[in-house]
């Protein structure tokens, strides 16, 4: 009986034709070209920052890079313009490495203050994932042949692939928080700051739960503490109507 299933080469060609390798490649590039470099050194940089700033970042359970992953891929370069309750404060010390022929290439992360509904300030190291910006740009460029539906599908796949990569990474464990979200449909101008604060509160609760020796997950906490993202935070299946 003849095997009519496609060969590995044919499957690869089909995947490439349907843009299905885009998210996978972007996720791996983001990891090996940036996150794998900066995350293992992040806590040392925070400690260095604290020595020069009167131990300002006291809460060690939030000594993480909070990575914003909007499923829409719409990224505002100035976070302060995305939500007025998010304000730039200072940068962490820069990490400088020789990379691909560039001497002392600089990598730095920014610290923001997040204003809560209780009017208290929370300090947070936060930034968008740049590959999502690339997906958005592709969907706006006719020559890329990349539709809005493709963008949504690839954004979801990127978030899942990145989560899986980081979950397996021992070097990056406990150094990041993935914040996957879909923009609020009710025109809440402070949706983003509330979403970040929700994750900060979860981290406090996770730390308390671990200290109490209770490792059972709740309905919104991750079952894998090193990935720090719950299934409920990951985007669901592709919607038929797209964006």
UniProtKB/TrEMBL annotation:
- The UniProt record lists the STING ligand-binding domain at 21-204
Q: Which domain of life is it from?
A: Eukaryota
For this chain, one GO molecular function annotation is: 2',3'-cyclic GMP-AMP binding
**Keyword tRNA processing set for record:** no
Where, if anywhere, are coiled coils annotated?
Answer: none
Chemical reaction(s) catalysed: H(+)(in) = H(+)(out)
Q: How does it sit in the membrane?
A: Multi-pass membrane protein
Give the matching Pfam families: STING_LBD
Q: What is its main location?
A: cytoplasm
Residues annotated as transmembrane: none
Q: Which GO terms describe its cellular component?
A: autophagosome membrane; endoplasmic reticulum membrane; endoplasmic reticulum-Golgi intermediate compartment membrane; Golgi membrane; perinuclear region of cytoplasm
Q: Which UniProt keywords apply?
A: Endoplasmic reticulum, Membrane, Nucleotide-binding, Transmembrane, Transmembrane helix
Asked if Transcription regulation is a keyword of the record, the answer is: no
A GO BP term, please? positive regulation of type I interferon production
Tell me the compartments it is located in. Answer: Cytoplasm, Perinuclear region; Cytoplasmic vesicle, Autophagosome membrane; Endoplasmic reticulum membrane; Endoplasmic reticulum-Golgi intermediate compartment membrane
Protein family: Belongs to the STING family.
UniProt-recorded name of the protein: Stimulator of interferon genes protein
Which source organism does the UniProt entry give? Platysternon megacephalum (big-headed turtle)
